[in-house]
């Protein structure tokens, strides 16, 4: 009897977890033949699953990665899983503004189209500095993508209608931006929250700036995902997170659903500048919808990356 109770308890626990992790799948299969998608951080996690989904729909997929060994392996895997040969990688280190500029020069020289830009690469909560002296989270997650998108904006406009999808996180709500200290680098979790809030403002301001020019912009919270982000932490933390992730986080393929939805679906296109969770528009805290702050961050970012 005792054995039976244990089995029943284990089964109930399993199904409760499964129920908690239920998510929508984006099942529409619009073809993307003739279109080009660029995905930062496409060698792992959500970026890689997004690359597979877009390549499967016929898009030419370019993954922009900092480590060419990992990129080569990822390209092989993406080709295999998507049954597409139209996948390649290019070198990009978002922690180095020179690398971002060089990447854009090479990309604009070799690629005639850019229809979908997925800003997926990201650093989790770590206290480190980029080559240009910015805090690692703010520098990679926001400034690197800010410069990249701006340098490619002309090509996106030429290929209109085109889309930019930027990965953010629902924990943006735990911090606000301090314009006296945008380069804040004290508590790792807070640096990450701020960079993800910056992603939301960036996405909104991009939508405003490109209004009527055929480029639309979306911010996505992919859910909490069993990806490779724990590799930046100690062995003990990784072990702990393996258990927690197995219990509560969703697989990368599920995390990529909302990204693909925003990149492809006609429904998402109606919500330019929107924030999306679980394949549908979601609401933001009022402070994260402040157009004045979004504009101010855009202008500050232009100065920081010397774009103005
Ligand atoms: N996982 C989650 O639960 C979760 C939740 C909310 C939001 N997000 C967001 O989702 C996005 C994707 O994360 P993920 O979960 O898929 O994590 P991931 O598996 O760790 O992927 C992150 C990617 O970013 C790349 N990257 C990091 N620094 C870079 C740099 N300086 N230059 C170029 N590429 C760089 C990594 O390349 P390397 O392989 O070379 O390190 C990797 O390909 C991130 O923006 C993250 O903030 C994730």
From TrEMBL:
Oxidoreductase keyword on record: yes
Zinc-finger keyword on record: no
Gene Ontology MF term list: oxidoreductase activity
InterPro entries: NAD(P)-bd_dom_sf (IPR036291), SDR_fam (IPR002347)
Record keywords, A-Z: Oxidoreductase
Family: Belongs to the short-chain dehydrogenases/reductases (SDR) family.
Name of the protein described by the UniProt record: Retinol dehydrogenase 14-like
